[in-house]
Each structure stands twice: as structure tokens, then as C-alpha cells.
Design a protein that fits this description.
The protein has about 250 residues and is of the alpha+beta class. About 15% of the residues lie in helices and about 30% in strands. It has 3 helices and 14 strands. The strands form 3 sheets. Strands 4, 7, 8, 9, 11, 12 and 14 form a 7-stranded antiparallel beta sheet that branches. It has a 4-stranded antiparallel beta sheet with strand order 1-2-3-10, with no helix packed on it. It is globular and about 45 Å long.
């Protein structure tokens, strides 16, 4: 009887652990050409298997510009955002598109990363868009998927939250899938001729010591987050071990 109580207490504890997922903390690039709100920021990611929730804590400087989080959901995407992607229908679509096509400049992702979706956030809105894997993308060519429930409303806000469903980017809930991501921070209508102007702040590797400006930029690495797997399999495995131990007892 004592053995049974101890075993089932262990099953309960392990089962509870399987149902939880501790938050993962990511840090920005450490660079601050736009004052540091993104470069010196942190993001805490957590999920319940279906919805990813992010708490963004900014660094010094006001959040005056557009933050773009490029996501690789594990399907075919783009290895770069170049001249073929030129959606200027609104500020966030423009920020996702990087530089205007006439500049001839590209945002290149590191080996193993293909952008399938992007989250764009400024003080006015936060949304999720899908990025076509091939072809030219003009105004409204980036397909809007969903609102990400951003709580950012003023540029001096110390922290804000946003969230999105994994199903919205084609991932099965509770699948244990890994999402890769990088991020940029830019003025989508800055620079000469309203072509866009990028800072050296973001997430991922390779950011220079000064503004990217209106130039090419290549990431050298990316960050990764794994969605909590279906807990049933882990719990069933534990129960199986318990039964085996009981039989041996």
C-alpha cells in the first residue's frame, strides 16, 4: 500500500510537470542605434500548447518605430526579403517588406531559416501576416492572418504583451514543434524618398555597430522556441512504468 501511494504521488507530480511549460527568455541584439528599445529588450515566451504568449520588455529609448518578428514555421518560405517583396499598403506591411524595391536591397536570413510568416507591431497595431514563398508581392500581397492582441499603446510603455495561436502559422497544437525567429526594428517610411530605414536593433545574430540604414543585411543566426508537446504521451509512459514496477514488486 505504501508503495502504491508513493508511486501514484510521483505520477501526479510528473503529470503536472508534463502539463506545464516554463517561460523561455530571449535577449535582443545588444545594439542601440535607435536608442535601444529593441536591441536592449527581452522577450519571455510561453505557451499552453495552442497559444504562444510573449511579454516584451523594452530597453532604454522610446518605441517610436516598427518591430517585425519573422517566423519560420517549418514549411517552405523565403530565404530573403528582397526586391520581389514590396508591400507598401501600410506601415507594418512596409516594415515587413524591408527596403522599397527601388533600392535593390535585401534582408537575408541565415542558413536553415525560411520566413513563412511575420508579426508586425507598432503603437497603433499588432498583427500576423503570411509571406508567400515565391513570386512578386505588391500592395496587400502579404496576407493578413490575425490580430496578435498587442497591448502596446504608447511609445514610453515599459513592457507589453502579444499572443498568437500556433494553428495560425500552420503548426498542430501540442505537437512539440519548433519555431525559429529573427526580428528587425525600422522606420518603414524613413530615409531618402520614403524607402525605409533600418536600425541595428533586433533578434538574431549579425547586427552591425551602426544603423543598417538603406543597405543589405544578412542574419548570421536565429532564435528558436519549442511548443509544449502533448502531455498525454508522457503521462502514459509514466503510468506504463508504474504498472511494470508493480508487477515486478
Amino acid at each position: 500500500m505504501k508503495f502504491s501511494k508513493r508511486v501514484f504521488a510521483a505520477v501526479t507530480l510528473l503529470g503536472s510537470a508534463a502539463l506545464s511549460h516554463a517561460a523561455t527568455l530571449f535577449t535582443g541584439s545588444g545594439t542601440s542605434s535607435f536608442g535601444g528599445p529593441v536591441g536592449n529588450s527581452t522577450m519571455s515566451w510561453s505557451d499552453d500548447g495552442s497559444t504562444i504568449s510573449v511579454t516584451f520588455t523594452k530597453g532604454a529609448g522610446n518605441f517610436n518605430d516598427s518591430f517585425v518578428l519573422y517566423l519560420d514555421a517549418g514549411t517552405t518560405g523565403r530565404t530573403s526579403i528582397g526586391t520581389q517583396v514590396n508591400d507598401r499598403a501600410d506601415p507594418l506591411r512596409s516594415a515587413i517588406s524591408f527596403m522599397e524595391a527601388s533600392t535593390g536591397k535585401s534582408l537575408n536570413f541565415s542558413s536553415g531559416f525560411e520566413a513563412t510568416h511575420a508579426i508586425g507591431i507598432n503603437t497603433g497595431f499588432g498583427g500576423l501576416w503570411s509571406i508567400p514563398s515565391t513570386g512578386s508581392v505588391g500592395n496587400n500581397g502579404l496576407s493578413f492572418v490575425d490580430d496578435v492582441n498587442s497591448t502596446l499603446t504608447v511609445n514610453t510603455q515599459g513592457s507589453f504583451t502579444f499572443s498568437f495561436d500556433v494553428a495560425a502559422i500552420g503548426i498542430t497544437p501540442n505537437s512539440g514543434a519548433t519555431i525559429n525567429f529573427v526580428a528587425t526594428y525600422s522606420n518603414p517610411f524613413g530615409g531618402s524618398g520614403s524607402l525605409g530605414f533600418a536600425s541595428n536593433e533586433g533578434y538574431g545574430g549579425g547586427f552591425p555597430g551602426a544603423n543598417v540604414g538603406q543597405d543589405n543585411f544578412t542574419f548570421t543566426s536565429f532564435d528558436s522556441y519549442t511548443v509544449v508537446p502533448e502531455p498525454a504521451a508522457a503521462v502514459l509512459g509514466i503510468i506504463g512504468m508504474v504498472i511494470l514496477l508493480r508487477r515486478r514488486k
